[in-house]
Amino acid sequence: MGGGRSPFLERASWLLQLPLETPTIPFEDEQSGCTLWLKLDYLLPSGCTKDRMATNIVAYAIATGEVSPSTVVVEASSGSTSIALSMVCATVGVRFRAYMPKTVSGERVLMIRRLGGEVVLTPATQGMDGAVAALLRDSAAEPDVFAAQQFKNPRNVLAHRHSTGPQLINQVGARLDGFVAGVGTGGTLMGVAHALRDHGYDTIVARAMPTRTFTAEGDPEVVGGIPGIVDGMSQLLEPDAVRLDNSVLVPESEALATAREFGRRGLGVGPSSGLNIAAARRLAARLGPGHHVGTILPDRMERYFSTALFDDVAAEL
Question: Does the pLDDT at position 1 exceed 50?
Answer without folding.
Answer: no
